[in-house]
Amino acid sequence: MKVSAVVVSHGHADELVVSLPALARQVDELVVIENVPGSVPPELPDGVRVLRNERALSFAANANLGAASTSHELVLVANPDAVPEADAVGILRAFVEEHPRCGVAGPRMLYADGSWQASRRRFPTVGATLVRRTPLRLLFPPLRWQRRHYVLDERPDGPVPAETMLGAFLLLRRTMLDEIGGWDPGYRMYCEDIDLNYRAAKAGWERWYVPAAVVRHEYAAVIDKRFLTRHTLWHARAMLRFLRKHPERLLVLR
């Protein structure tokens, strides 16, 4: 199977200088979407195509645009600050090839300093979300108290099933994307990766965490650092959209 890669850049030209060369040598096709002017460096690896938007689109809409402009069965969607180690894509590709019902495969993610990043997670619940997105997080730090959501007590060395994974670097089967209708562009920002994984699960597609594939990712976690910003409002709206689409999650409190 060949891999088409899609990278959405919204003012991340500096990050692309590092990530694109590492990614380009591992994939068969690479498209960068310039969501706003100046988001792509002047020099690019050979063969990289650039799609320039006339107006900024949501991440999910850009992911769909990138998938539609590429041709291979496997579609890798990556953030500009996600830097794959050698053969990370090849490891994910080999796993998906061997597991025909795997619709989503994600790597082990590390911060730039090499420390572990909680990228494999369980689907959100109402109670846990209230703690993470309100001042309650000051009393109950999520990465200490929400061990179940962040799967903190499991750091497997081999592939394991996942409920959902961070959307910063995901290898997706195009057949699955076509079946579930792709990413939901109605999410302005946040939760589009959770929604994609949830709809994949509903359709019977497996999601796998493959830790042999390693990606360095400087996860900004903007909404984890401040309250009452436009980002927290965007996240709240995204969670409300997720709950409207999947009201059964209201019954899962913790």
Describe the structure.
With 254 residues, the protein is α/β, with parallel strands linked by helices. Helices cover 32% and strands 22% of the residues. The protein has helices at residues 13-24, 59-68, 88-98, 126-132, 136-139, 142-145, 174-180, 192-202, 230-245; strands spanning 3-9, 29-34, 49-52, 74-78, 82-84, 102-110, 120-121, 160-161, 164-165, 169-173, 206-217. The strands form 2 sheets. Strands 1, 2, 3, 4, 5, 6, 8, 10 and 11 form a 9-stranded mixed β-sheet that branches. A two-stranded antiparallel sheet has the order 7-9. It is globular and about 50 Å long.
Give a quick precis of the structure.
The protein is of the alpha/beta class and 254 residues long.
The helix/strand class is alpha/beta
**Largest sheet composition:** 9 strands, mixed
Number of helical stretches of at least 4 residues: 9
Strand content: 15-25%
- The percentage helix is 25-40%
Overall outline:
globular
Order of helices and strands: EHEEHEEHEEHHHEEEHHEH
| N/C terminus separation | 39 Å
List the uncertain runs: none
Question: Which whole number gives the mean pLDDT?
Answer: 90
Please give the radius of gyration in angstroms. Answer: 17 Å
**Beta-strand segment tally:** 11
Which key terms come to mind for this protein?
single chain, two-stranded antiparallel ribbon, 32% helix, 254 residues, 9 helices
Secondary structure elements and pairings:
Blueprint: E1 3-9, H1 13-24, E2 29-34, E3 49-52, H2 59-68, E4 74-78, E5 82-84, H3 88-98, E6 102-110, E7 120-121, H4 126-132, H5 136-139, H6 142-145, E8 160-161, E9 164-165, E10 169-173, H7 174-180, H8 192-202, E11 206-217, H9 230-245
Parallel strand pairs: 1-2, 1-4, 2-3, 6-11
Antiparallel strand pairs: 4-10, 5-11, 6-10, 7-9, 8-11
